[in-house]
Amino acid sequence: MQTTALGALLLATAMVAALSAPGISPTVHSGLFELGPVQGADILCVAPDPPPDWGCIFDADGNVVNLYGGSAAAFLKDQTSQSGSLDSTTFSGAGTSNKNNDPVSCPTLSVKTCWHWDAGNVPAKDDFSNAYAWAKMNPANGHLIIYAGFERLDPSGDSHVDIEFFQDVVSLDEDPPCNDPGADMIPCSFLGTRLVGDIIVSMDFLVGGGFGSMSIREWTGSSYSLVGSLGAEGCNTPDSICGFNNGFDIDGGPWPNYDRHGMEITTLPKNAFTEFGIDVTAVAGETPCISVVMGKTRSSQSFTAELKDFAGPVGFPLCSISWHKVDNKAQPLGGATFELCRTHSFVNGQFVDIPDECRTVVDNVDGDIDAGDVDLDGRPGEFEVGGLSLGRYTLRETVPPPGFGADPDTVTINFTGGSMHVDVGEAFVDERPILKLTEFGYTNTPTGTPTSGVVSGTTVYTVVLHNFGGATGVVSGSLTVTVSGQGGGTFACSGTGVSDCTLTFSGVSIAPGGEAVFSLTIQYTDFADGAQVGASLLASYTTPPDTTVVRVPSGVPATITFTVQGD
Question: Distance between CA atoms of 62 and 44, rounded to whole angstroms?
Fold first, then answer.
């Protein structure tokens, strides 16, 4: 068993996953991120402004290429409906409204006021485009700082944008596009719920595209309560809330941007880009353990106005643990299943034994968050689980990917405070069997004392298969002896598992470093000159318990033939 003491996640309770940590010296605009200035917001990482900035955190596809010491980063991109096609993810009433204080999901069929979604068209001012978020713990005071930016298709009109940060793993109930009516009885909806401490940042832009105002609200358990606001572009006095627009045309970054007609552009016009930074710990008085982020638009300035369009939710795991799975060549290996168990709570500086709280974590390999996903990292072989509480955890692989053996190690992780994200640095390594034919030969002993060419004798064939891999292989196959041109001569075969001169072997386990030996004997009498005796080997192997990946040992198939010389 490996034990990894990796710091901890900042959590107060398992229910709300938030740590009360108010403090002084919030420093949003202090060099942690290239933010602003007034009318000077931009995307690229170019001199004289040092990174990190959005253009060097993400690549053209929205993948994170450099986290720059941050805790998490997320890119939200949404279809536009301005060029004639439908947007697959828009809010749909399903007979009711969709508003910010409505439940995210419906616990029963009788509850109708939760969010629903479907394909649709929305005006350009309400059409969500690209957005991105990045978070970092401020080393100066331990505060959680969240930065976010987004692009607007129509910067000339009034518009209303929300960026919502959930602690629960909120997700869509199915992959877009919505296929209802389908097998389920509920129109396309959301899964998950709000937790006390969730944060929503609302931006309201003026006619003409001016900055307008920004408000920050925290979920109290029944509604969102205002905890901070910014009435104009810039920063508030304590530097805990900042927001900026671009006051001139800027490069839109390496990813595609769009105009109000849905056409792809590379330059964002004035007021089309907004970015903000919030010292969440200072503003909310606690540090929520966020798992996912979602972008939304509203029809008007009212916080409870009808919701129109959305992007996400996508993983934004702050209080989380991540680990890595590789193969025997140290390459990322997708498809494993792990078990993550919380075995102890952490109270007053002491670990307290509790009934195991275990999660099954199946590798999320499709690049997004789907219903039921526990793994928030969509890359094969990369795992991240959010919503964790203080305590001691064990982590082990339970089901390896097909064709590989599970890493036998169990890792113990102690979360005791000091970090919101922990990475298990040493990767889990799945070995595989590697079988090779290391010996295939025969001995050929004459019968009696030869006085001329040998036409009678005993031949013993030997096959040796060696496992050079790190996992057990199960091999099956056959060794078949055939005779031709023997004239009036006779022959007979013998040996364990031999029938009609064919040795059959099935389900033979070969441990790492081990080998399997097979033999077959043929006795032949009075063979004609020129008779030929051949032996053919076939074999394949699997990795238990999987039987879907079938490999063939190196050196197989193989054939040996000898000729009888009678003179």
Answer: 14
